[in-house]
Design a protein that fits this description.
Largest sheet: 8 strands, antiparallel
Radius of gyration: 24 Å
Structural class: alpha+beta
CATH class of the largest domain: Mainly Beta
CATH superfamily of the largest domain: Crystallins
Helix content: 10-25%
Number of domains: 2
CATH topology of the largest domain: Gamma-B Crystallin, domain 1
Mean pLDDT: 76
Number of strands: 14
Number of helices: 6
Order of helices and strands: HEHEEEHHEEHEEHEEEEEE
Length: 269
């Protein structure tokens, strides 16, 4: 009987150890799943999801001023790094991100690490006349949010746009890029996504519903959706196309919540 009791104790101890091991594995699996499904912000500095791309921005690491959103960001009087709910991100929950606000006339004070990002280099190497007169936000290493400061120039720009012209001929959306405008007729603030960097990476969420017109100056199609991660009603911006208003489309005006830049020939919507 004593031997049986000893054996029972050993068996019980083994069962407890096995249960503890299973619990540890369950916790690990749960943690790993949470880490896998957690959102990634496309940002200039903190918690960027492309650390291997060579776009690390040292000045953005550490403490930076926090703002509640885009409106408060635009109210800032100084260029610099700011933290806010991510303007563009990947995943199922909106994280915080660090962006760089480049105020009109402040190009010379931009840190070298930001100046070296593809989104700024592409502006400097192209026809950069007037770049220092434009306020913009460096959202990611390749994404910028342009903030027109001259309504007269914006109106002139719109008047010069031809409804059926090839998008690549329009000067206010760079070649091989997709531009999503806040207002109809290509007016207001607008996002630029270069297809070279973002085609084929999947759905990118917008921090807030956005968009009433678009120019797709790319050889590939671009999709919009009125829910995150491509869910809900979709809109197809075909290659080399433009649309001055989404009002006559199922997605409607001001409802885009996510965007995906498709590849070239094999991917069509």
């Amino acid at each position: 009987m004593k031997i049986m009791k000893s054996s029972s104790r050993r068996t019980a101890r083994h069962v407890l150890l096995l249960l503890a091991a299973c619990l540890s594995l369950a916790v690990f699996a749960s943690t790993a799943a949470a880490a896998t499904s957690s959102s990634q912000d496309l940002c200039v500095g903190l918690e960027c999801d492309v650390p291997a791309s060579g776009t690390y921005v040292a000045e953005a690491q550490g403490s930076v001023p926090e703002v509640t959103g885009i409106d408060q960001l635009l109210a800032q009087k100084s260029s610099g790094f700011y933290s806010l709910p991510a303007l563009v991100y990947r995943g199922d929950a909106q994280p915080r991100a660090v962006v760089y606000l480049a105020k009109s006339g402040d190009l010379a004070q931009m840190p070298t690490s930001v100046r070296n990002l593809p989104v700024v280099q592409s502006l400097l190497t192209a026809d950069s006349s007037g770049i220092d007169a434009t306020t913009f936000v460096v959202v990611d290493h390749g994404i910028r949010l342009v903030l027109p400061t001259d309504p007269g120039a914006a109106a002139s720009r719109s008047a010069g746009a031809r409804p059926h012209a090839r998008a690549a001929t329009l000067p206010f959306c760079p070649s091989r890029s997709f531009c999503l405008y806040q207002e109809e007729n290509y007016l207001g603030s607008y996002y630029e996504w270069p297809g070279v960097l973002y085609a084929g990476i999947g759905w990118m969420n917008l921090g807030t519903n956005f968009g009433k017109s678009q120019i797709n100056a790319r050889a590939g199609d671009t999709l919009l959706a009125d829910h995150s991660l491509g869910e809900g009603t979709r809109y197809c911006a075909q290659q080399e196309s433009e649309d001055s208003s989404f009002s006559n489309n199922p997605i409607g005006n001001g409802n885009a919540s996510s965007v995906a830049l498709l590849g070239s020939t094999p991917d069509r919507c």
